[in-house]
Design brief:
Length: 264
């Protein structure tokens, strides 16, 4: 309660005491006999009640932050809390900003990337959005670095044939690298013929040409297939050197295609 004048008191509800300290004991914000500036919020003459606000005498810290930190501004702060949704970073004005899991890393899943942080860590992030009404500040750590996926697949589209390097051999297929980005070619996509769909016929370091079957920027995955490349090459050879109506066998057609490419 605040004495406005002799015999007249007003109530400052705990929710109107501080912009940032929610649901705390009033004694942690003000002390008895302390003089404070307040704003009259409501006067109920019937109930002889005066509602006052303490925080209204100070500027909304989210509005101040929005004015001084437009989108793209790089901030530095301490990790105050780590939740299943992301990191909470301490900012100026005793407020927090949140880095969602999806904004932690370009290359790692959010659930994996968050394991790299601990409470008390000092990190840098860029401001992506400030919602003053919801008192919410969105931050991004990954935006401080280059989008390796976008850079790697620049100019690559579905149907493109690219040259990759084998980096690992697994039972279910082979891992390959293209422009610093890893991708996986499944066993069933290793060759047109089932007898050649064997990962062990490849070695780490081999250069392999594969056809792009999918570019998914959302999941940041590049679909590749050697089988699709071989089928496309055979189709092109048939169209150029023979047809099903000519009576030529596939061997004849491919032989002509190889001879044609050798004569060039």
């Amino acid at each position: 309660f605040v004495e406005l004048e002799a015999g007249v008191e007003g109530l400052v509800h705990v929710s109107e005491m501080s912009w940032t300290k929610k649901n705390v004991h009033p004694g942690k914000i003000v002390s008895t006999s302390q003089e404070v500036d307040v704003m009259v919020l409501e006067i109920d003459t019937a109930k002889r009640r005066v509602s006052l606000g303490l925080k209204q005498t100070m500027r909304n810290p989210w509005e101040v932050f929005a004015e001084t930190h437009p989108a793209g501004t790089v901030i530095e702060g301490e990790v105050k809390n780590i939740t299943e949704f992301g990191l909470f970073i301490g900012l100026e004005g005793d407020i927090d900003g949140m880095v969602h899991l999806s904004d932690l890393s370009w290359d790692q899943r959010g659930e994996d990337a968050i394991q790299n942080y601990r409470k008390g860590d000092v990190v840098q992030a860029s401001v992506t959005e400030v919602d003053t009404e919801k008192e919410r500040i969105s931050l991004s750590i990954k935006s401080l670095g280059a989008d390796t996926f976008t850079d790697a697949v620049d100019g690559v589209k579905r149907g493109t044939v690219i040259t990759t390097t084998v980096t690992a051999i697994e039972e279910g297929g082979i891992e390959v690298e293209y422009n610093g980005m890893k991708s996986f070619i499944r066993r069933s996509d290793l060759a047109r013929d089932r007898t050649d769909q064997r990962p062990e016929r490849f070695q780490v370091g081999d250069h392999v040409d594969a056809r792009v079957t999918n570019v998914d920027s959302k999941t940041r995955r590049l679909g590749l297939s050697i089988k699709a490349r071989e089928i496309a090459e055979e189709k092109e050879a048939v169209e150029q050197y023979g047809s099903s109506d000519s009576g030529a066998s596939l061997g004849d057609i491919l032989g002509a295609a190889l001879k044609g490419s050798g004569d060039k």
